[in-house]
User: Fold these one by one.
Assistant:
Number 1:
Amino acid sequence: MNIVFFMPRFFFICLFSMATWLIGGGCTLYAQQLRGPLLPSATFWDDPPRLMMLDYPDIYSTFDDPAYRFDASFTNVPLGTSETQVFRLVNRTSRPFPGLSVVFEGGQSGRFVLDTSGMATTLAPGETTSFRLSYRPTMIEVNRIELQITSADEEVYPAVGSITGLPIHRLTAWRETYFGSSANDGDGADEADPDRDGVINRLEFALNLDPRKPSKPSTILQTSELNGMIEFIYTRSRGALSDGQKFVVEWSDSLAPLSWRQDEVTESILSQTAAAETIKAVLPKGLSGARFVRLRVER
Ligand SMILES: [Ca+2]
């Protein structure tokens, strides 16, 4: 499917939507997936052996293990977004626990951010404190980190948490937002066009459009000529950028398959929101009397 815009002064701007994922600009809002915090609690056992224990969803320590081990996970977190969980510690004993600290003990700490700024350093009997752990994936991979919670009292055994992060593409979350399912099928399929505007879903996502409302080509791309230059304006989804999609403006004077060029194109950001950024590409209009410009979106 090609959409060709006839431009004044014999300029043509063409928008390609092909199997190889070619297209031009747009914008959409999609909900950032923020889940409610989980509130596991920790218990400090006073009887021998003294044990710092976290009650994390129905998992209990074995008392002969010198460290209490627990698991926590961040699942289905869209690339480029962040999810935060709050871990709560409760001292249920009759004695204070001094020098509390939480540290990473290996793994991919770059994907996780620990915030202990609000955490008490000494936890008196009956008191509660908490720390926060955030996960922000930047590529599709399984991320793991180990956390160690300790007290300066050496008789208090540490709690060691194995934390797992499981990211998803923003496109997957986008399908869920618009079609109620993350599955790549039916109306939500990448190649589907349920609003019948000629723009398939994965391009609707890339261009930040609403896949349920038809878009007019003239609202997807704006073009103009100024002082011998062509201005080509498009809007791209920041979520698509987080997914690693590339946006490339190309031009040709003949439309021949091997004639497309990327040189002499300069781009600048006109405006941006949390969801999208609008880009202006400028290139010479050339001397041949006609020039075609396209935006190629590729994964
Ligand atoms: Ca469509």
Number 2:
Amino acid sequence: MTRTVFLTTKTTDLVHLTVADAPAILPWLNNHDITRFLNRGDRPLALAEEEKFLGSLYTERDKLVLGIWHKEAEKLIGMTGLHSINPINQTAVFGITIGDTDFHNQGIGQAVLSAMCSHAFNWLNLRNVVLHVLGNNPRAITCYTRVGFIEVGNYPTFVFKDGEWVDEIHMLLRRENFLLSLEEEAKRQTVHQVATMTT
Ligand SMILES: CC(C)(COP(=O)(O)OP(=O)(O)OC[C@H]1O[C@@H](n2cnc3c(N)ncnc32)[C@H](O)[C@@H]1OP(=O)(O)O)[C@@H](O)C(=O)NCCC(=O)NCCS
């Protein structure tokens, strides 16, 4: 299978996703250990629904969704995206899921976030990237803070998840607050010419 690489980090390539990736993605999005941190998990995700989503990618300019391909393991381990890209307000909403839990806590989230923010600020010319994270997800909050996101709001006990009400925290990264060292790092590692690799 030929993969199109759009961005790259030290350990991962951020690749185009296709309908053929749906069977790999489905178990992540039906795993409560993952969905307890996401805005899903209340009902099963069907293969056809995921295929429909993947089939619509790269046809519209309001979102950029990419697969996270682990270079050494040679497999897809997650997905990430800039959603609701708004060229007037110059904003987007960031999302990330490393679905393969074997690859958590290895700095991959921070590297991917850094590469996506670098693209958001330097290529899409956005001013602000925002995200929403549940208050019971300290790993994600640490990851986002490391890249320069700050908390700008909190809807207390707002989301019902696994029998509990949890806070929804709103975080913001302004272009000027994107940590320079990470940006420089991301720039070095970011490939903006479309390259291909064979898997
Ligand atoms: C959230 C997620 C993207 C983070 O990616 P990751 O590669 O696991 O995270 P990183 O290793 O880059 O960074 C995590 C940081 O949190 C720290 N951390 C881990 N567990 C923590 C905890 N319980 N409390 C506080 N910090 C924690 C790590 O030590 C690391 O900080 P460091 O760089 O100082 O060591 C990933 O774990 C994931 O996809 N989780 C499941 C889905 C999810 O939560 N998505 C986000 C929804 S908003």
